[in-house]
Amino acid sequence: MKIPFISTLLSILLLVSQLAHGQGPSEEEVKKANNPLANSKALNLQNYYIPTLYDNPNLKANTALIRYAMPFADGKVLMRATLPLGTTPSGYSPNGSPKYSSGLGDLNFFVTYTFSKPDAKTLLGVGPQVVLPTASADALGAGKWQLGGAFVAFNAASPAFQWGGLITYQTSIAGDEDRVSTALLVVQPILLFQLGKGAYLRSTALWNFNLYNNAYNVPFGVGAGHVAKAGNLLFNIFLEPQFTVLHEGAGQPALQFFGGINCQF
Question: Is pLDDT of 9 > 80?
Answer without folding.
Answer: no
